[in-house]
Fold:
Amino acid sequence: MNERDVIARLRRIATHEAARGLADDAALLGDLVLTHDSIAEGIHFLPTDPPDSVGWKLVAVNLSDLAAKGAAPVAALLSMTLAGDGKWDEAFLDGVEAACESYALALVGGDTIAVPKRAPRVLGMTAIGRAGERTPSRAGGRPGDVLWLAGFLGDSAAGLALLQADRKAVGPLVDVYRRPVPLLGAGRALAAFANAMMDVSDGLLLDCQRLCEASGCGAEIDLDALPLARPFIAERGQNRAARLFAATGGDDYALLAAIPDGIDPSVSLSLPDGIRVTRIGRLTEVEGLALADADGSIAAPEHLGHEHRGL
Amino acid sequence: MNERDVIARLRRIATHEAARGLADDAALLGDLVLTHDSIAEGIHFLPTDPPDSVGWKLVAVNLSDLAAKGAAPVAALLSMTLAGDGKWDEAFLDGVEAACESYALALVGGDTIAVPKRAPRVLGMTAIGRAGERTPSRAGGRPGDVLWLAGFLGDSAAGLALLQADRKAVGPLVDVYRRPVPLLGAGRALAAFANAMMDVSDGLLLDCQRLCEASGCGAEIDLDALPLARPFIAERGQNRAARLFAATGGDDYALLAAIPDGIDPSVSLSLPDGIRVTRIGRLTEVEGLALADADGSIAAPEHLGHEHRGL
Structure:
């Protein structure tokens, strides 16, 4: 049984309608949206990452799932392993607290457990949000819907690459990798119109494929349209290779929404200041991903994103 | 910062009323009761334990927290690390599924994450219950309340001791250690009258001390009154040493309730078949635990239970 089998098995267990077939970012129980994301040392964060940024990130990745469902943060339960390094734990909690305060997320419970020394840390959070009027799943997209993206792509992956080359690297790309910002306001605004929505955590192409599979359709993506931030362009340029890197890098915490043609969220929605919403393609009858830029169509890369990050 | 400091810090962060000061087994958000418990390999279960029993136990320990608040199981989110042993993972999920089905707990979401091979497994669950008419905390006990215990003490600790001596040991005590039964029906019944209630997971004396600290009082416990099951007595006898072992062993998942004098839950409540409710002592004005048996008062043992198991 590999990870894919485990997830298939979990889906067979999770038959309650609130589970949404485990094909969504979150469960919907009454008017509450529930999500749980865990992060492990050596997989989702580097042992050398500042612990306060790890705490921030744990909260942010969970809030990003709430954002993708248009929900407002309410409460969270924290699960943390204690490996005997009190200084690390304290700084980690600084980051958790800062993110909870920033986004009005009340920490209401959880669990601390001792683990053997040198065991990789496993940090988990269950975040609970209040649903808005609509809670788009991944499954509601229809051929003809326009794909909109809130936020930018590639910054975090470029920041991680800088850190992998030099663990003392600093700068705006490293900041995005370490302190992602959940797009809660944009999520609430887009949820009112989106037929389908999800957050882009494992790479745009992989996550778009998941949205297509859940919705039973395909997608065309215009690589030239992908929103790249200035620091990304300064580091990596904006040619085809740079754009494919951005489209597969992961850890973006952008939002991908399928919105009926004719609604332009960049003008018709009241979006938070500084949030850019970009038209990047559309859903199609034909299954699969079709990529193109000004030079013509592009074969989908072998790795669309980070498969190994679980549900 | 040691584990106690971490918990103190978490309490300072968790100021929302739903958190109940993190001094309770669970949070109360509207009419939902929320709890998260994680278990780690080598700490809460043995690497040699059958994986289906580990899955069962993870569900049961979370349901025991719901039972202690008189809540009915609704839904759960599962967090599991995948260390590359698919056979283990499959059997673990068998146990999760069996327990979820047994107690009508819907698995609605969660997360699977890869961890490095040989990293100790960390398995977590957030369980969500529907509150009953009353949701007793640990903090409502008053001097004069009678302490009642639902379930038996010591079986699980005796089973663990058998396994530590011979990892192939079998029998009813090993069964209790591996497959605890959450006392959901008893919890619902007792919650209607209890001023304070909690589950006994880390040892009766330690957990009773926690209830006393939260309630601002002390307790007298009659060691002779502690309910011991026949398999426990057959294995360990029922002298003072055996009773102190049972009172400090942990992993019981019994329920401890402080109920106003004059209400006898063993006659006035409609309890599930086979559930025994026993009067074991009372709350006092004088702080601290006072233990006694027919031979007189007993000094409290140095170790009241398992401190290291976290919140």
Chain B has a mean pLDDT of 92. Chain B has two domains: 3-130, 146-309. Chain B touches chain A through 66 residues (CB under 8 Å). Residues 3-130 of chain B form a domain with the 60s Ribosomal Protein L30; Chain: A; fold (CATH 3.30.1330.10).
